[in-house]
């Protein structure tokens, strides 16, 4: 195993650093947006659908939540995202014109498979999976698929599977938009260019590791943490909080920053680190006033800001500059430092990073 790990201490760290390769392999050979990326019948199915239902668990569920922002803004189709174990047991209103999407690293998660079957029982036959395992039950059960090329993921906490799922989902948003006549050639070429540059952009974010280790040492003796994001970065905040819980056993919660005043602000003291995702987007000014609310209560902010966002470090506000603002694909880049933060916090606390207590890589029973 030592040889396999190379310079890395754990599989999780190795897998975090594999992301430029994993993302590169996932988009390899894609020169233009074509429905066939998702299967032979994709063009016809995408033309017919008027709604999307995404079903998934864990980290894959957060990929689904991120995709909702992309699909609704680029393809203009309404998206519902549900936790698979909840969907299968509630009365819902089926729409035969829905595209049912499952997202799963393993393709074997029992709850997600059962939710898919439930949707089918309700008469929804248009099914697609974003999956990392070509030979899995999920791929067999769905009409359409997109295989991510993360490669085998060993660390229980998902890293490269998540970012490659996001790439697949972004491609899906573009493809549905194109089929529906909502994507012009100029936009298509721009997005493809951005996707192609992603491995390099991720590489630049990985180079922030030494600064993040400095933060992790300060997190190691905390028992609670809050993660803030807005818009399409809110699901990324949720994923950051989940990662920290899973491997460092620090209790962490994510909030959309505008919701602070409706509850979590009561928890903010000097003991509460508040990790903030602060991309330079149209919500930045709003976010800055949310950060002000935290500072005013003595909360300690740890901010990932884009280099052009003009946020400055100050007393009680630690700052790491992200190399570049990445537009609609920014959630993918902002995931990376959160992975590194939870990884190094867990290492500092001495937990079993690759095999956290009570958790399994793939949950094939209910
Ligand atoms: C388990 C894993 C998570 C994963 C979830 C869903 O809880 O520990 O990392 O996100 O299952 O797994 P899937 O294979 O369906 O993506």
Automatic annotation (TrEMBL):
GO CC terms: cytosol
Key words of the record: Aminotransferase, Cytoplasm, Glutamine amidotransferase, Repeat, Transferase
Example GO BP: carbohydrate metabolic process
Cell compartment(s), UniProt: Cytoplasm
UniProt key word Transferase: yes
GO molecular function: carbohydrate derivative binding; glutamine-fructose-6-phosphate transaminase (isomerizing) activity
Enzyme Commission code(s) on record: 2.6.1.16
Keyword Repeat: yes
Active site: 361
Major enzyme class: transferase
Catalyzed chemical reaction(s): D-fructose 6-phosphate + L-glutamine = D-glucosamine 6-phosphate + L-glutamate
SIS domain sequence ranges: 42-182, 215-356
Subunit and interaction comment: Homodimer.
Function: Catalyzes the first step in hexosamine metabolism, converting fructose-6P into glucosamine-6P using glutamine as a nitrogen source.
This protein's name: Glutamine--fructose-6-phosphate aminotransferase [isomerizing]
Organism of derivation: Advenella kashmirensis (strain DSM 17095 / LMG 22695 / WT001)
Residues of the full protein shown: 245 to 610 of 610
């Amino acid at each position: 195993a030592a040889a396999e790990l190379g310079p890395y201490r754990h599989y999780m760290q190795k897998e975090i650093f594999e992301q430029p390769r994993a993302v590169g392999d996932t988009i390899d050979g894609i020169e233009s947006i074509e429905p066939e990326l998702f299967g032979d019948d994709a063009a016809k199915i995408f033309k017919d659908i008027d709604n999307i239902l995404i079903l998934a668990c864990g980290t894959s569920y957060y990929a689904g939540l991120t995709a909702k922002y992309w699909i609704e803004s680029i393809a203009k189709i309404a998206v519902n995202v549900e936790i698979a174990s909840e969907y299968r047991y509630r009365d819902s209103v089926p729409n035969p014109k829905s595209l049912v999407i499952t997202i799963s690293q393993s393709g074997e998660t029992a709850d997600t498979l059962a939710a898919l079957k439930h949707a089918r029982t309700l008469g929804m036959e248009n099914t697609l999976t974003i999956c990392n395992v070509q030979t899995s039950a999920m791929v067999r059960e769905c009409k359409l698929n997109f295989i991510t090329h993360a490669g085998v993921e060993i660390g229980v906490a998902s890293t490269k599977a998540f970012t490659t799922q996001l790439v697949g989902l972004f491609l899906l948003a573009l493809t549905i938009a194109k089929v529906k006549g909502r994507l012009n050639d100029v936009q298509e070429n721009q997005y493809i260019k951005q996707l192609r540059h992603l491995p390099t952009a991720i590489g630049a974010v990985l180079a922030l590791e030494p600064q993040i280790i400095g933060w992790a040492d300060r997190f190691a003796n905390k028992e609670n943490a809050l993660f803030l994001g807005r818009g399409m970065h809110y699901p990324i905040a949720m994923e950051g909080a989940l990662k920290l819980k899973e491997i460092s056993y620090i209790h962490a919660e994510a909030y959309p920053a505008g919701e602070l005043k409706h509850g979590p602000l009561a928890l903010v003291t000097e003991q509460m680190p508040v990790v903030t995702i602060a991309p330079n987007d149209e919500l930045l000014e709003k976010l800055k006033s949310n950060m002000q609310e935290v500072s005013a209560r003595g909360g300690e902010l740890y901010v990932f800001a884009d280099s052009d966002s003009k946020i400055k470090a100050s007393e009680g506000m630690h700052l790491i500059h992200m190399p570049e603002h990445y537009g609609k694909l920014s959630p993918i880049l902002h995931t990376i430092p959160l992975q590194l933060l939870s990884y190094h916090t867990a290492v500092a606390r001495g937990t079993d990073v690759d095999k956290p207590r009570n958790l399994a890589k793939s949950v094939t029973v209910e």
